[in-house]
Amino acid sequence: MAVLEKLSQCVLMLALLAVASGAWAQDPWTLIGIGDTQVLVETVAGAQAFSNMTQWAVDNQETENVVFVTQLGDIVQDGFYGRPNTAAPSLNNVDQWDRAEAAMSILEDASIPWGTGVGNHELDWVDVIPGVTPSSNWWATQNPGVPVPASGFEGWKQRFGPVTTGRFDSVPEFGGAAPNDVDTYFIYNAGGRDYLHLHLQVDIPDSTIAWAQGIIDANSGMPTMISTHVFEGTQHGPPNNPYLSGPGRNSANQVWDKLIKDNAQIFMVLNGHTGQQVRQTRTNTAGKSVFTISQDYAGFDTGGANSGYVRLYEFDEANSVIHVKTYSATLDNYLTSSAHQFDLPLNWFARFDGGLLGDLDFNTVIDGQDWILFRNGHLKDLSGLSAMQKYAMGDLDSDGDNDVIDFGLFESAYDNANGEGQFQSMLSSGVPEPTAAGMALVGTCCSLIGYRGRRTRGALRRRRILVF
Fold first, then answer.
1. Element (H or E) spanning 94, and its range?
2. Is the separation of the CB atoms in 10 and 444 below 8 Å?
3. What is the model's pTM?
4. Half-sphere exposure of 464 (CA within 13 A, CB side)
5. In order of start, what are the domains of the chain with their CATH numbers?
6. 319 CB neighbour count, 10 Å cutoff
7. Minimal CA–CA distance to 312: which of 27, 34, 26?
8. Over the stretch 247-292, which tens digit does the pLDDT of each residue have?
Protein backbone atom coordinates (compact mmCIF):
# COMPACT_ATOMS: atom_id res chain seq x y z
CA MET A 1 0.00 0.00 0.00
CA ALA A 2 2.82 2.38 0.85
CA VAL A 3 4.37 1.83 -2.58
CA LEU A 4 1.03 2.38 -4.33
CA GLU A 5 0.42 5.51 -2.29
CA LYS A 6 3.82 6.90 -3.24
CA LEU A 7 3.22 5.97 -6.86
CA SER A 8 -0.14 7.77 -6.91
CA GLN A 9 1.48 10.81 -5.35
CA CYS A 10 4.15 10.75 -8.02
CA VAL A 11 1.52 10.47 -10.78
CA LEU A 12 -0.34 13.46 -9.31
CA MET A 13 2.86 15.48 -9.10
CA LEU A 14 3.76 14.54 -12.66
CA ALA A 15 0.35 15.75 -13.83
CA LEU A 16 0.77 19.04 -12.01
CA LEU A 17 4.29 19.45 -13.32
CA ALA A 18 3.06 18.72 -16.82
CA VAL A 19 0.57 21.55 -16.59
CA ALA A 20 3.19 23.81 -15.04
CA SER A 21 5.72 23.10 -17.75
CA GLY A 22 3.41 24.15 -20.56
CA ALA A 23 1.25 21.15 -21.41
CA TRP A 24 4.22 18.83 -21.86
CA ALA A 25 6.44 21.23 -23.76
CA GLN A 26 4.37 22.96 -26.41
CA ASP A 27 6.51 23.94 -29.36
CA PRO A 28 8.00 27.44 -29.21
CA TRP A 29 6.45 29.98 -31.55
CA THR A 30 7.58 33.31 -32.98
CA LEU A 31 6.17 36.82 -33.05
CA ILE A 32 7.90 39.08 -35.57
CA GLY A 33 8.21 42.77 -34.74
CA ILE A 34 8.76 45.30 -37.53
CA GLY A 35 9.70 48.79 -36.43
CA ASP A 36 9.59 52.07 -38.35
CA THR A 37 9.82 51.44 -42.10
CA GLN A 38 9.51 55.11 -43.07
CA VAL A 39 13.00 55.34 -44.61
CA LEU A 40 12.63 52.11 -46.57
CA VAL A 41 9.52 53.17 -48.48
CA GLU A 42 11.20 56.31 -49.84
CA THR A 43 13.16 54.37 -52.48
CA VAL A 44 12.78 51.30 -54.65
CA ALA A 45 15.85 49.69 -53.05
CA GLY A 46 14.51 50.38 -49.58
CA ALA A 47 11.12 48.97 -50.52
CA GLN A 48 12.86 45.76 -51.53
CA ALA A 49 14.38 45.51 -48.03
CA PHE A 50 10.90 46.02 -46.57
CA SER A 51 9.51 43.24 -48.76
CA ASN A 52 12.45 41.03 -47.75
CA MET A 53 11.24 41.31 -44.14
CA THR A 54 7.78 40.01 -44.87
CA GLN A 55 8.97 37.46 -47.44
CA TRP A 56 11.32 36.02 -44.83
CA ALA A 57 8.35 35.55 -42.52
CA VAL A 58 6.54 33.63 -45.25
CA ASP A 59 9.57 31.53 -46.23
CA ASN A 60 10.20 30.60 -42.59
CA GLN A 61 6.62 30.31 -41.44
CA GLU A 62 6.90 26.58 -40.81
CA THR A 63 10.50 26.25 -39.62
CA GLU A 64 10.29 29.26 -37.29
CA ASN A 65 6.63 28.73 -36.39
CA VAL A 66 5.65 32.30 -37.27
CA VAL A 67 2.23 33.08 -35.80
CA PHE A 68 1.84 36.84 -36.15
CA VAL A 69 3.58 39.98 -37.41
CA THR A 70 3.22 43.29 -35.59
CA GLN A 71 4.25 46.58 -37.17
CA LEU A 72 4.94 49.44 -34.77
CA GLY A 73 4.02 52.52 -36.79
CA ASP A 74 5.59 55.03 -39.20
CA ILE A 75 4.96 52.61 -41.99
CA VAL A 76 5.49 55.54 -44.42
CA GLN A 77 7.54 58.72 -44.23
CA ASP A 78 5.36 61.49 -45.62
CA GLY A 79 1.78 60.78 -44.64
CA PHE A 80 -0.96 61.23 -47.21
CA TYR A 81 -0.31 64.84 -48.12
CA GLY A 82 3.21 65.44 -46.92
CA ARG A 83 5.16 67.19 -44.21
CA PRO A 84 4.20 70.80 -43.50
CA ASN A 85 7.83 71.79 -42.91
CA THR A 86 8.62 70.86 -46.51
CA ALA A 87 8.51 73.67 -49.04
CA ALA A 88 6.73 71.58 -51.68
CA PRO A 89 4.93 68.60 -50.12
CA SER A 90 4.18 65.75 -52.47
CA LEU A 91 0.44 65.32 -52.34
CA ASN A 92 -0.75 61.78 -51.70
CA ASN A 93 2.76 60.23 -51.76
CA VAL A 94 1.37 57.36 -53.77
CA ASP A 95 4.69 55.58 -54.21
CA GLN A 96 5.33 55.29 -50.46
CA TRP A 97 1.87 53.93 -49.76
CA ASP A 98 2.08 51.50 -52.69
CA ARG A 99 5.40 50.15 -51.40
CA ALA A 100 4.14 49.75 -47.84
CA GLU A 101 0.98 48.03 -49.02
CA ALA A 102 2.91 45.70 -51.33
CA ALA A 103 5.21 44.59 -48.50
CA MET A 104 2.38 43.85 -46.08
CA SER A 105 0.33 42.11 -48.78
CA ILE A 106 3.03 39.42 -48.92
CA LEU A 107 1.90 38.36 -45.45
CA GLU A 108 -1.77 38.43 -46.41
CA ASP A 109 -1.17 36.25 -49.46
CA ALA A 110 0.40 33.64 -47.15
CA SER A 111 -2.41 33.97 -44.56
CA ILE A 112 -0.06 35.31 -41.86
CA PRO A 113 -2.07 37.73 -39.72
CA TRP A 114 -0.60 41.15 -38.96
CA GLY A 115 -1.49 44.42 -37.25
CA THR A 116 0.00 47.90 -36.89
CA GLY A 117 0.20 50.52 -34.16
CA VAL A 118 -0.32 53.64 -36.26
CA GLY A 119 2.37 56.34 -35.90
CA ASN A 120 2.76 60.08 -36.37
CA HIS A 121 4.04 59.76 -39.96
CA GLU A 122 0.78 58.14 -41.05
CA LEU A 123 -1.10 61.36 -40.23
CA ASP A 124 -2.38 63.03 -43.40
CA TRP A 125 -0.12 65.99 -42.64
CA VAL A 126 2.77 64.51 -40.68
CA ASP A 127 2.72 65.56 -37.01
CA VAL A 128 -0.44 67.62 -37.48
CA ILE A 129 -3.44 66.42 -35.51
CA PRO A 130 -6.95 67.80 -35.03
CA GLY A 131 -7.38 70.13 -32.09
CA VAL A 132 -3.78 71.30 -31.90
CA THR A 133 -3.27 75.04 -31.98
CA PRO A 134 -0.82 76.39 -34.59
CA SER A 135 1.63 77.64 -31.98
CA SER A 136 2.16 74.11 -30.63
CA ASN A 137 3.48 72.46 -33.78
CA TRP A 138 5.72 73.16 -36.72
CA TRP A 139 2.85 74.10 -39.01
CA ALA A 140 3.04 77.59 -37.51
CA THR A 141 6.72 78.02 -38.35
CA GLN A 142 6.13 77.19 -42.01
CA ASN A 143 2.70 78.77 -42.36
CA PRO A 144 2.43 81.72 -39.95
CA GLY A 145 -1.12 82.86 -39.41
CA VAL A 146 -2.58 80.03 -41.49
CA PRO A 147 -5.06 77.76 -39.64
CA VAL A 148 -4.08 74.14 -39.14
CA PRO A 149 -5.54 72.09 -41.99
CA ALA A 150 -7.76 69.10 -41.52
CA SER A 151 -5.53 66.17 -40.66
CA GLY A 152 -6.11 62.71 -39.33
CA PHE A 153 -5.54 59.17 -40.52
CA GLU A 154 -7.83 59.34 -43.55
CA GLY A 155 -5.08 58.40 -46.00
CA TRP A 156 -4.02 55.47 -43.84
CA LYS A 157 -7.61 54.27 -43.66
CA GLN A 158 -7.85 54.23 -47.46
CA ARG A 159 -4.98 51.72 -47.56
CA PHE A 160 -5.19 49.80 -44.29
CA GLY A 161 -8.35 50.79 -42.39
CA PRO A 162 -10.17 47.59 -41.41
CA VAL A 163 -13.64 49.06 -41.91
CA THR A 164 -12.78 51.28 -44.88
CA THR A 165 -10.96 48.57 -46.84
CA GLY A 166 -12.43 45.35 -45.43
CA ARG A 167 -8.98 43.80 -45.84
CA PHE A 168 -9.20 41.95 -42.50
CA ASP A 169 -12.74 40.64 -42.94
CA SER A 170 -11.54 37.13 -43.78
CA VAL A 171 -8.75 37.03 -41.21
CA PRO A 172 -9.94 34.70 -38.41
CA GLU A 173 -7.55 36.22 -35.87
CA PHE A 174 -8.94 39.74 -36.41
CA GLY A 175 -11.15 40.71 -33.49
CA GLY A 176 -12.32 44.15 -34.55
CA ALA A 177 -11.56 47.84 -34.86
CA ALA A 178 -12.41 50.86 -32.74
CA PRO A 179 -14.99 53.32 -34.11
CA ASN A 180 -12.08 55.44 -35.39
CA ASP A 181 -11.09 52.61 -37.80
CA VAL A 182 -7.49 52.96 -36.59
CA ASP A 183 -7.09 51.00 -33.36
CA THR A 184 -7.49 47.22 -33.65
CA TYR A 185 -7.24 43.97 -31.75
CA PHE A 186 -6.42 40.39 -32.69
CA ILE A 187 -6.79 37.09 -30.84
CA TYR A 188 -4.57 34.25 -31.97
CA ASN A 189 -3.72 30.81 -30.64
CA ALA A 190 -0.03 30.06 -30.19
CA GLY A 191 1.70 27.38 -28.16
CA GLY A 192 -1.63 25.97 -27.03
CA ARG A 193 -3.08 29.18 -25.56
CA ASP A 194 -4.91 32.28 -26.79
CA TYR A 195 -3.28 35.70 -26.81
CA LEU A 196 -4.95 39.11 -27.06
CA HIS A 197 -2.90 41.61 -29.07
CA LEU A 198 -3.96 45.27 -29.14
CA HIS A 199 -2.62 47.70 -31.76
CA LEU A 200 -3.07 51.29 -30.57
CA GLN A 201 -2.23 54.61 -32.22
CA VAL A 202 0.53 57.08 -31.31
CA ASP A 203 0.19 58.85 -27.92
CA ILE A 204 -2.71 56.53 -27.09
CA PRO A 205 -5.57 59.01 -26.53
CA ASP A 206 -8.23 58.72 -23.84
CA SER A 207 -10.87 57.51 -26.29
CA THR A 208 -8.60 54.67 -27.41
CA ILE A 209 -7.80 53.75 -23.80
CA ALA A 210 -11.51 53.48 -23.02
CA TRP A 211 -12.06 51.28 -26.08
CA ALA A 212 -9.04 49.08 -25.25
CA GLN A 213 -10.22 48.63 -21.66
CA GLY A 214 -13.52 47.33 -22.96
CA ILE A 215 -11.72 44.75 -25.12
CA ILE A 216 -9.56 43.68 -22.16
CA ASP A 217 -12.63 43.36 -19.93
CA ALA A 218 -14.34 41.20 -22.56
CA ASN A 219 -11.30 38.90 -22.63
CA SER A 220 -10.45 38.90 -18.95
CA GLY A 221 -7.39 36.90 -17.94
CA MET A 222 -6.16 36.32 -21.49
CA PRO A 223 -2.40 36.99 -21.90
CA THR A 224 -2.26 40.41 -23.52
CA MET A 225 0.30 42.39 -25.53
CA ILE A 226 0.10 45.98 -26.75
CA SER A 227 1.79 47.30 -29.88
CA THR A 228 1.88 51.07 -30.20
CA HIS A 229 4.15 53.70 -31.69
CA VAL A 230 5.32 55.65 -28.63
CA PHE A 231 5.92 54.23 -25.17
CA GLU A 232 9.31 52.96 -23.96
CA GLY A 233 12.35 55.19 -24.39
CA THR A 234 13.56 58.67 -23.53
CA GLN A 235 13.49 60.53 -26.85
CA HIS A 236 10.80 62.37 -28.82
CA GLY A 237 8.23 62.45 -26.05
CA PRO A 238 8.48 59.60 -23.56
CA PRO A 239 8.33 59.05 -20.75
CA ASN A 240 6.84 62.29 -19.48
CA ASN A 241 5.22 63.82 -22.55
CA PRO A 242 3.17 62.68 -25.53
CA TYR A 243 5.00 63.21 -28.79
CA LEU A 244 2.18 65.42 -30.08
CA SER A 245 0.28 67.62 -27.67
CA GLY A 246 -3.46 67.80 -27.92
CA PRO A 247 -6.72 67.11 -26.09
CA GLY A 248 -6.79 63.68 -24.47
CA ARG A 249 -3.38 62.58 -25.74
CA ASN A 250 -1.22 60.69 -23.27
CA SER A 251 2.43 60.32 -22.34
CA ALA A 252 3.95 56.91 -21.68
CA ASN A 253 3.61 57.49 -17.93
CA GLN A 254 -0.06 58.38 -18.34
CA VAL A 255 -0.71 55.32 -20.49
CA TRP A 256 0.93 53.19 -17.80
CA ASP A 257 -1.30 54.68 -15.13
CA LYS A 258 -4.53 54.69 -17.14
CA LEU A 259 -4.31 51.38 -19.01
CA ILE A 260 -1.41 49.08 -18.21
CA LYS A 261 -0.55 48.95 -14.51
CA ASP A 262 -3.98 47.83 -13.27
CA ASN A 263 -4.57 45.20 -15.98
CA ALA A 264 -2.56 42.24 -14.72
CA GLN A 265 -2.99 40.27 -17.95
CA ILE A 266 -0.85 42.76 -19.92
CA PHE A 267 2.67 41.38 -19.92
CA MET A 268 4.40 43.11 -22.84
CA VAL A 269 4.32 46.49 -24.62
CA LEU A 270 6.19 47.01 -27.91
CA ASN A 271 6.87 50.32 -29.64
CA GLY A 272 9.05 52.09 -32.20
CA HIS A 273 9.55 55.85 -32.76
CA THR A 274 12.38 56.75 -30.40
CA GLY A 275 15.38 55.64 -32.47
CA GLN A 276 16.41 53.66 -29.39
CA GLN A 277 16.76 49.93 -28.73
CA VAL A 278 15.92 49.97 -25.03
CA ARG A 279 13.79 48.01 -22.62
CA GLN A 280 12.85 47.65 -19.01
CA THR A 281 10.83 45.32 -16.81
CA ARG A 282 8.20 47.18 -14.83
CA THR A 283 6.03 45.87 -12.01
CA ASN A 284 2.27 46.36 -12.16
CA THR A 285 -0.08 46.79 -9.22
CA ALA A 286 -0.56 43.02 -9.01
CA GLY A 287 3.19 42.57 -8.53
CA LYS A 288 3.58 41.06 -12.02
CA SER A 289 6.27 41.89 -14.56
CA VAL A 290 5.53 43.91 -17.69
CA PHE A 291 8.18 43.96 -20.43
CA THR A 292 8.27 47.34 -22.23
CA ILE A 293 10.48 47.35 -25.31
CA SER A 294 11.42 49.97 -27.89
CA GLN A 295 12.75 48.93 -31.31
CA ASP A 296 13.33 51.46 -34.06
CA TYR A 297 15.90 50.51 -36.70
CA ALA A 298 15.08 53.33 -39.14
CA GLY A 299 18.48 54.82 -38.36
CA PHE A 300 20.06 51.63 -39.70
CA ASP A 301 18.33 52.24 -43.06
CA THR A 302 19.48 55.80 -43.79
CA GLY A 303 22.01 56.77 -46.44
CA GLY A 304 20.96 53.90 -48.66
CA ALA A 305 21.90 51.25 -46.09
CA ASN A 306 18.38 49.73 -46.21
CA SER A 307 19.28 47.13 -43.58
CA GLY A 308 15.71 46.06 -42.81
CA TYR A 309 16.18 44.64 -39.31
CA VAL A 310 13.26 42.96 -37.52
CA ARG A 311 12.82 41.50 -34.06
CA LEU A 312 12.12 37.81 -33.58
CA TYR A 313 10.34 37.06 -30.30
CA GLU A 314 10.45 33.32 -29.67
CA PHE A 315 7.99 32.30 -26.96
CA ASP A 316 9.43 29.19 -25.29
CA GLU A 317 6.85 28.36 -22.64
CA ALA A 318 8.38 24.99 -21.71
CA ASN A 319 11.56 26.76 -20.61
CA SER A 320 9.85 29.84 -19.13
CA VAL A 321 11.54 32.34 -21.43
CA ILE A 322 11.02 34.63 -24.42
CA HIS A 323 14.14 34.63 -26.60
CA VAL A 324 14.63 37.89 -28.50
CA LYS A 325 16.84 38.24 -31.58
CA THR A 326 17.32 40.93 -34.22
CA TYR A 327 17.76 39.85 -37.85
CA SER A 328 18.10 41.33 -41.34
CA ALA A 329 16.92 39.16 -44.20
CA THR A 330 18.54 41.59 -46.65
CA LEU A 331 21.96 41.26 -45.05
CA ASP A 332 21.39 37.76 -43.62
CA ASN A 333 22.82 39.08 -40.37
CA TYR A 334 21.97 39.00 -36.67
CA LEU A 335 22.77 41.82 -34.26
CA THR A 336 24.08 40.05 -31.17
CA SER A 337 24.90 42.74 -28.61
CA SER A 338 22.77 42.90 -25.47
CA ALA A 339 20.65 45.73 -26.88
CA HIS A 340 19.48 43.51 -29.71
CA GLN A 341 19.62 39.94 -28.37
CA PHE A 342 18.33 39.03 -24.93
CA ASP A 343 16.02 36.77 -22.93
CA LEU A 344 12.89 37.70 -21.00
CA PRO A 345 12.00 35.30 -18.14
CA LEU A 346 8.31 34.43 -17.98
CA ASN A 347 6.66 31.63 -16.00
CA TRP A 348 3.38 31.15 -17.86
CA PHE A 349 2.05 28.72 -15.22
CA ALA A 350 2.45 31.15 -12.35
CA ARG A 351 1.40 34.19 -14.41
CA PHE A 352 -1.61 32.94 -16.35
CA ASP A 353 -2.68 29.48 -15.15
CA GLY A 354 -3.39 30.21 -11.51
CA GLY A 355 -0.22 28.57 -10.28
CA LEU A 356 0.87 29.74 -6.85
CA LEU A 357 4.31 31.30 -6.99
CA GLY A 358 6.24 29.52 -4.24
CA ASP A 359 4.23 26.30 -4.38
CA LEU A 360 7.28 24.20 -5.17
CA ASP A 361 5.69 20.80 -4.65
CA PHE A 362 2.60 21.74 -6.69
CA ASN A 363 0.04 20.72 -4.07
CA THR A 364 -1.86 24.06 -4.26
CA VAL A 365 -0.65 25.31 -0.86
CA ILE A 366 2.48 27.13 0.29
CA ASP A 367 3.72 25.64 3.53
CA GLY A 368 6.77 24.43 5.39
CA GLN A 369 7.46 21.68 2.89
CA ASP A 370 7.84 24.29 0.16
CA TRP A 371 10.27 26.16 2.39
CA ILE A 372 12.36 23.02 2.81
CA LEU A 373 12.50 22.56 -0.97
CA PHE A 374 13.40 26.22 -1.40
CA ARG A 375 16.10 26.09 1.28
CA ASN A 376 17.66 22.98 -0.22
CA GLY A 377 18.04 24.76 -3.55
CA HIS A 378 19.21 28.12 -2.19
CA LEU A 379 22.51 29.26 -3.74
CA LYS A 380 23.00 25.81 -5.31
CA ASP A 381 24.26 25.23 -8.83
CA LEU A 382 21.12 24.72 -10.93
CA SER A 383 22.85 24.55 -14.30
CA GLY A 384 21.82 21.63 -16.45
CA LEU A 385 18.31 21.49 -14.99
CA SER A 386 15.13 22.19 -16.94
CA ALA A 387 13.18 25.38 -16.22
CA MET A 388 10.62 23.50 -14.12
CA GLN A 389 13.32 21.64 -12.19
CA LYS A 390 14.90 25.00 -11.39
CA TYR A 391 11.54 26.33 -10.29
CA ALA A 392 11.04 23.33 -7.98
CA MET A 393 14.45 24.20 -6.48
CA GLY A 394 13.40 27.78 -5.78
CA ASP A 395 14.15 29.74 -8.96
CA LEU A 396 11.04 31.91 -8.64
CA ASP A 397 12.10 34.73 -10.97
CA SER A 398 13.13 32.35 -13.79
CA ASP A 399 16.65 33.74 -14.03
CA GLY A 400 18.37 30.38 -13.57
CA ASP A 401 19.32 30.53 -9.89
CA ASN A 402 17.93 30.60 -6.36
CA ASP A 403 19.34 33.74 -4.75
CA VAL A 404 18.42 36.52 -2.35
CA ILE A 405 15.83 37.91 -4.77
CA ASP A 406 14.10 34.55 -4.87
CA PHE A 407 14.22 34.46 -1.07
CA GLY A 408 12.33 37.75 -0.92
CA LEU A 409 9.79 36.45 -3.42
CA PHE A 410 9.28 33.27 -1.41
CA GLU A 411 8.82 35.15 1.86
CA SER A 412 6.24 37.43 0.24
CA ALA A 413 4.44 34.48 -1.35
CA TYR A 414 4.37 32.61 1.96
CA ASP A 415 2.94 35.60 3.85
CA ASN A 416 0.40 36.30 1.10
CA ALA A 417 -0.84 32.73 1.36
CA ASN A 418 -0.75 32.34 5.13
CA GLY A 419 -0.94 35.82 6.65
CA GLU A 420 1.44 38.68 7.34
CA GLY A 421 4.44 37.61 9.44
CA GLN A 422 3.70 33.90 9.15
CA PHE A 423 6.94 33.18 7.33
CA GLN A 424 9.02 34.44 10.26
CA SER A 425 6.75 32.55 12.66
CA MET A 426 7.30 29.37 10.69
CA LEU A 427 11.05 29.86 10.85
CA SER A 428 11.03 30.51 14.58
CA SER A 429 8.86 27.47 15.28
CA GLY A 430 11.21 25.19 13.39
CA VAL A 431 10.39 23.12 10.35
CA PRO A 432 11.12 19.38 10.25
CA GLU A 433 13.52 18.10 7.68
CA PRO A 434 11.86 16.29 4.79
CA THR A 435 11.79 12.55 4.92
CA ALA A 436 14.13 10.66 2.65
CA ALA A 437 11.15 9.11 0.89
CA GLY A 438 9.55 12.49 0.34
CA MET A 439 12.70 13.97 -1.15
CA ALA A 440 13.15 10.90 -3.32
CA LEU A 441 9.59 11.32 -4.60
CA VAL A 442 10.18 14.94 -5.57
CA GLY A 443 13.51 14.08 -7.12
CA THR A 444 12.10 11.20 -9.16
CA CYS A 445 9.17 13.24 -10.44
CA CYS A 446 11.37 16.20 -11.33
CA SER A 447 13.75 13.86 -13.13
CA LEU A 448 10.91 12.41 -15.15
CA ILE A 449 9.52 15.79 -16.14
CA GLY A 450 13.04 17.00 -16.83
CA TYR A 451 13.64 14.07 -19.17
CA ARG A 452 10.45 14.95 -21.00
CA GLY A 453 11.63 18.54 -21.41
CA ARG A 454 15.09 17.69 -22.74
CA ARG A 455 14.05 17.37 -26.33
CA THR A 456 16.54 18.93 -28.68
CA ARG A 457 15.59 22.38 -29.84
CA GLY A 458 16.18 21.29 -33.42
CA ALA A 459 13.32 18.84 -33.12
CA LEU A 460 10.87 21.55 -32.12
CA ARG A 461 8.68 23.19 -34.69
CA ARG A 462 9.21 26.82 -33.74
CA ARG A 463 6.90 29.65 -34.60
CA ARG A 464 7.79 33.32 -34.54
CA ILE A 465 5.97 36.65 -34.53
CA LEU A 466 7.60 39.46 -36.50
CA VAL A 467 7.40 43.03 -35.21
CA PHE A 468 7.92 45.78 -37.79
1. helix 94-109
2. yes
3. 0.80
4. 27
5. 9-17+363-458 (no CATH), 27-353 (3.60.21.10)
6. 21
7. 34
8. 889 999 999 999 999 999 999 999 999 999 999 999 999 989 999 9
